[in-house]
Design brief:
The complex is a heterodimer of chains A (176) and B (409). Chain A has 176 residues and is an alpha/beta fold. In chain A, strands 4-3-2-1-5-6-7 form a seven-stranded mixed beta sheet. Helices cover 32% and strands 19% of the residues of chain A. Chain B folds into three domains: 132 residues, Aconitase, domain 3, CATH 3.30.499.10; 93 residues, Aconitase, Domain 2; 147 residues, Aconitase, domain 3 (2-Layer Sandwich), CATH 3.30.499.10. Chain B contains 15 helices and 18 strands. In chain B, helix 2 crosses helix 5. Classes of the chains: A alpha/beta (176), B alpha/beta (409).
Amino acid sequence: MPEAKLVLRGCVRAVLPENIDTDIIYPGRYLNITDREKTAEHLFELAYPGIRAELQPGEFIVAAANFGCGSSREQAASALKYAGVGAVLAASFARIFYRNAINLGLPAVVSPVAFKLCAPGDELEVDLTGGRVRNVTQGREFASAPLDPRAIELLQAGGLIPYLKRKYATAQGARP
Amino acid sequence: MGMTIAEKILARASSRASVRPDEIVVANVDLAMSHENADLVRKSFLEIGVPRVWDPSKIVIIFDHRIPAESEKTATTHKAVREFVAAQGITNFYDVGRGGICHQVLAERGHVKPGMVVVGTDSHTTTHGAFGAFATGIGATEMAGVWAEGALWFKVPSTIRIEVTGEFRPWISAKDLILHIIGRLGAAGADYRAVEFDGSAIRSMTAASRMVLANLSMEMGAKAAFTPVPEIGPDPAAVYERVLHIDAGRDIAEPQIACPHSVDNVKPLSAVGELPVHQAVLGSCTNGRVEDFEIAARIVAGREVHPRTRLIVIPASQQVYREAMRLGYLETLMAAGAIINPPGCGPCVGVHQGILAAGEVCVSSTNRNFIGRMGSKDSSVYLASPAVVAASAIAGRLAHPEALEPVHA
């Protein structure tokens, strides 16, 4: 299993306002798609179709507060991940979305100022454990919340399922 | 130190004497509920490689989002879940025609008990705080972990206490109260937090109305929400992050409307202005219960749904459907021109049974008004109480029940 990178480099694809809900990220009409890779086809389909069309692998989505509010649909996080989003940086995340993202191995980084200090196309260097974001294009650096060690462990395993798979493989199916 | 209800339940479930906000605990799960997304859970669970779920008697699966199956794709996922449920010995399974909306069925079939830790792969799982459970929504992958291990980590939330006193004015209901609160606190106003409702106005409410409060607390981000039950309450010295006092009669002078495209965009009805309505929806896990149909039937009795408007009524469950039928409410609604959908989520998730075209306006007793939630990205959903939904269906525009022409015998 390749270890997930803890310092990410990439460009900002979009800077979004507050309260980006999970219906905006992934419309409810596609909830019967349960192949995670295929969920990517409908990312931001209704409100921001351009993001999906132009997204390059590893690019960042930056947003103001309460990103991912609304439904518990995991497809919102899987669509972002499998479309190739490197990380989401938001002033805050709705709690279910945040857990879904980490469980699927999508870095979700809390940064209160990223949406004010980044523009689409800016190149960023995001230090997940160090809690620093460098905007290479604008030549400035700002703080983010370092990811919890538990979240880092899950990201490095590739998500909760590979993490549990490994745990039970080594324990030969024993439950805790 | 005194504990709130959320702290008490998480302390018990993690075998600790006490817990405090921001502590991480691993809590045993008493009940794990899923709807159609059990198919996603199933796939993740099978990937883990554990052969059997931890306890089939603690898992409940209820189809509601797409029933009966609206497409071959859905039929295929339904089938896969049925086979999994049978193979794992999960007997608490409510198939098409046996249940209805998951939160209604979980409650009316007595699965929820005070003090339980309940997780569900649906954000509105907070509903079950109306029965004294710490109940919260999780994603499908996390649920696969619960199916394997029977436990989950939680950050202990701080609690916002909301005390409501006074008497509701005529036509004002639990829906107006919670929309008013969401408008004040904002869409993230209770994010990562628990909410405790109490006060004389709450204690005099029906169980169905308390479910409305716990259900919609999700729309301000709440992790869990509680209304009072005899079995479990906060310690007298419990510490709250914030206490809010509301006088129902003074603070809520008229029906509250959540305008597009955010549930916290709340205005009093009179401030919304003239608004022609093409569709009125009465249903959902928020407001699809017998008392909602009773008030709607009272308003539409002897009247007709406006020619420009479609009134779609969706009982929350088979049980609600039969009871509303027995009491004559469905007869009254149909006589006025309503269509009755089968129990389930209906158009609320934007799948079927009442999808909106571009430019259409819907007034709905449901819980979300996000862009494209009920169909076209260029449609609009206004959230309101069952009384306002019924009155608007008759008037053909957003309307207060008191604004309707009197019925002539």
